[in-house]
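Hi all, posting the design record for the shared folder.

TITLE: backbone redesign
STEP: 1 of 1
STRUCTURE INPUT:
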């Protein structure tokens, strides 16, 4: 497999991953928020984002912010996948504390070829989330189908990790209010025609089945 991330500098990779990390749903990321995440000036971020737009890696909308293109998103997910796999390895296999693992993973993510990331993923038994409960991206339609399914399809007693949330702003607000987010641990308590009773991080919530269909999870079986 060709490592497409190697065609881009570490600085470019850092921008793309930072946008992916801090965005909420599909909303654009503001330049001040991105500057804060990268600990640099807004002017420097503005200049770099315009260069990345020329490379078709992101879209910049004045007064709104930046969003990743399909190519930019794929690149960011490749890098973030490596980063979070290393975090799992360093914390669970070598006993690092999370902050030290995160800092080390920031260095390793740029030097990890695809075949090594695949071997690491296999060795770790394909973890769904990093030690902080943040989802590990998996690429390709086959991988997504294999690892993700709607929460509504689970049976009482089954457990899962929330991977991705879909829906409009009202749905997103409801899920946030009930602490349902990527990385959350969910247990199905009951399932009916109209509602699903679920325990998420020790909190019980009744969810309309239409909304449950928009919560993508990885079953823990």
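Okay, here is what came back for every position:
SEQUENCE:
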């Amino acid at each position: 497999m060709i490592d497409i991330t190697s065609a881009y500098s570490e600085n470019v990779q850092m921008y793309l991953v930072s946008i992916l990390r801090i965005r909420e749903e599909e909303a654009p990321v503001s330049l001040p928020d991105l500057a804060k995440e990268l600990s640099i000036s807004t002017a420097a971020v503005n200049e770099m984002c315009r260069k990345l737009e020329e490379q078709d890696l992101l879209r910049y909308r004045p007064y709104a912010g930046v969003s990743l293109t399909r190519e930019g998103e794929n690149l960011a997910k490749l890098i973030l996948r490596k980063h979070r796999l290393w975090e799992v390895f360093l914390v669970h296999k070598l006993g690092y504390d999370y902050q030290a693992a995160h800092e080390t993973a920031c260095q390793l993510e740029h030097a990890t070829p695809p075949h090594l990331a695949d071997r690491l993923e296999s060795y770790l038994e394909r973890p769904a989330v990093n030690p902080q409960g943040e989802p590990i991206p998996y690429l390709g339609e086959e991988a997504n189908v294999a690892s993700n399914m709607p929460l509504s399809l689970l049976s009482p007693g089954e457990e899962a990790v929330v991977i991705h949330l879909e829906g409009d702003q009202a749905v997103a607000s409801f899920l946030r209010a009930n602490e349902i987010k990527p990385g959350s641990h969910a247990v199905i308590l009951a399932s009916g025609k109209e509602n699903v009773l679920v325990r998420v991080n020790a909190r019980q919530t009744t969810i309309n089945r239409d909304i449950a269909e928009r919560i993508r999870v990885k079953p823990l079986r």
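COMMENT: DSSP finds nine helices and eight strands in the chain.
Let me know if anyone wants the other runs.
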